[in-house]
Every structure is written in structure tokens, then in C-alpha cells.
Amino acid sequence: MKKRPLVVVTRRLPGVVETRMRELFDTRLNLDDKPMAQGELVEAVKSADVLVPTVTDEIDASVLAQAGPNLKLIANFGNGVDNIDVQVALSRGITVTNTPGVLTEDTADMTMALILAVARRMVEGARVIPEDEWAGWSPTWMLGHRITGKRLGILGMGRIGTALARRAKAFGLSIHYHNRRRAPGTVEDELEATYWESLDQMLARMDIVSVNTPHTPATYHLLSARRLKLLKPEAIVVNTARGEIIDETALARLIESGSIAGAGLDVFEHEPAVNPRLLKLARQGKVVLLPHIASATHEGRVDMGEKVIVNIKTFMDGHRPPDRVLPSML
Ligand code: 8YV
């Protein structure tokens, strides 16, 4: 690869990251930060040596089919790579990298915050004073549910699932998990975690279920209508992974009918559109909806940018970039 590759960045990144990229590469930035239309993405892949997309860019097979011969690396600014058809990219000899590790703690924090927000009715409560509706304290008013002593079922015990488990254990929750592979004994011991080989059996026994698995063809609607019906009526569901993992309409219907108590969602099936049923439930205080901000910290975004730069630089220097996405991860 050339010494100064043409790097096309699809969205605005933190200033320090953009500056460093300009110093190192022939960088084309998206200064107005508008998500690129598919046509603009096609133009980008035709000319770029390296593309730096984000979750808002759909780098699908039709975009990749038009990639120019120079495109050798897609360095995703983000952990999840479900916005990219990685199989097609790899089959065309394009390396794909992501930014794992640096958003783990922030995402786990926000997952814990969502659990507390739903169980303790924080968003409903926080509206009362600004809207001048506080008539004063009452022993039976605005009661939520205690989380200490409850069972948390983590779907996907990777980095973020494990970081969530550490936090949740400190809050007195018992840790249960379902994962493709059982976690090492040392991790289970540390977290006093119970492994459930059967997701269905785990779901039926949990008070809180957290989705922390990547979105792949195998996890699409993993929480299907059938599985969601296995949950207890007191259960709550939180999702800081990807909207597609839950059948959102089924979730909304089950909350409407009282078969599930509530949900805390940071991600949605058709972002930025949000299912109108969920919006209605949010207005009723039954769900807490956040606009995909679980990893949104200044520190995290700079760290992600640095990871992108290291991946590009290593690749340019002829070495294997540290965060290559391999077919076994899909
Ligand atoms: C990022 C995320 O904000 O990294 C991920 O997978 O979902 C988010 O936390 C986004 O992906 C940036 O592209």
C-alpha cells in the first residue's frame, strides 16, 4: 500500500482524531456530518484505499460490488460490524477491522443504568419536578422494584456481558448467562455465574434479561415472540447491543398486554426510526428509550478513533492490523 493512502471517513470524528488522520493519511472528511447516501458510499469505495465507516453506513454487497481496485481496508469506527457485508468484503480481498475493547466499560455502565432506570422508574420520576407535578411524598407513590437479590440473565458473555456482570454482582444481582461457548471456570468463579446451555430455560427464570451479543445472522430475532413469551410477567429486558436481536413488535405487544413488565432499549431495529408502539409505551413510562448512546463518551470516541488509526497504520506498514474481523467472529 502507498505511504499516504486515501482514507475516506464517512462521519465527523473527534477533532484530535481527524487532525491525526490528516497528518498521517491523505484524508477525506465528511465535514457536514450528514450520513452518506448509498450513491455517495459507492463513490467513496470507488476511489478510496481505506474506508472508515460507522454504524450509520450500510456497506452491503451492492456497494462492495462497485469498489475500486484500490480499496483494501475497511476500518470500521465501531465494534459491531453488522453494517458491513464482511463475507463479501473478505471474498474481494478487503480486510475489515473494528474497535473492540475501548467501549466495553461505557456500554456496561449504560446497561446498568438502564436496568436501574426501568426497575426504579427513574425517567418517570425525573419528569415530575420539571413538569411541576410533585404534590409531595407519599408512602405508596412511584414505587419501583428492588434489584438486589434478583436474577440477571446475560445473553452474550463477551467483553461487555462480562463487564456488566461485574457491575451487576456489586449491586447484589445473581448472574446467569447464555453464550455460544461456556466462559472459563475462572470467570464463572469470579462472577459466581450460572451457565445456561438452554436459552429458553434461562429466560423463563430471569427477573432481568440483558442483550449483549453481536448482531449476526444467527442472533437476528434471537429474542423472538416465542422466546419473549417465556419471560415472567415481572421481567424486564434491556438491550444495548443491536435492535435486530429482539423482535421489537413482539416485545412491545407483550409489554402492552402485561406479559413483560418493561424494557430499557438503547438500540432499535430500524434506527433512527423507532417503533410507534415503543414510543407510546415510553410515554406511559413502561419503557426507557435512549438514542444509541451507550458508548457515547468523549473518552471512548477518541479511543475508538485511535484504534482506527492504529489499524490503518499497521495495515499500511504491511502487518496484520490488531483488530481484524475474522470469519469465525461472524
Ligand atoms: C457506536 C456501537 O456508537 O460500536 C458499536 O458497535 O454500537 C456503538 O457503540 C457505533 O457503532 C459507532 O459506529
Ranges where pLDDT stays below 50 over 5 or more residues in a row are none
Shape: globular
Number of strands: 12
* Fraction of residues in helix: 25-40%
Helix count equals 13
> What's the number of domains?
2
CATH evolutionary superfamily of the largest domain: NAD(P)-binding Rossmann-like Domain
Q: Radius of gyration over alpha carbons?
A: 21 Å
Spell out the key features of this protein:
five-stranded parallel β-sheet, alpha/beta, 36% helix, 330 residues, Rossmann fold, 2 domains, globular, 13 helices, 12 strands, 13% strand, binds 2-keto-D-gluconic acid, seven-stranded parallel β-sheet
Task: Describe the protein in words.
- With 330 residues, the protein is an alpha/beta fold.
- It has two domains: 6-101 and 298-329, NAD(P)-binding Rossmann-like Domain (Rossmann fold, 3-Layer(aba) Sandwich); 104-289, NAD(P)-binding Rossmann-like Domain (Rossmann fold), CATH 3.40.50.720.
- 36% of the residues lie in helices and 13% in strands.
- It is built from 13 helices and twelve strands.
- The strands form two sheets. Strands 8-7-6-9-10-11-12 form a seven-stranded parallel sheet, sandwiched between helices. Strands 2-1-3-4-5 form a five-stranded parallel sheet, sandwiched between helices.
- The longest helix is centred in the C-terminal third of the chain and has 19 residues, at 298-316.
- The protein is globular and about 70 Å long.
- 43% of the residues are buried.
- The mean pLDDT is 97.
- 2-keto-D-gluconic acid binds next to loops.
- The site of 2-keto-D-gluconic acid (8YV) has 9 residues, from loops.
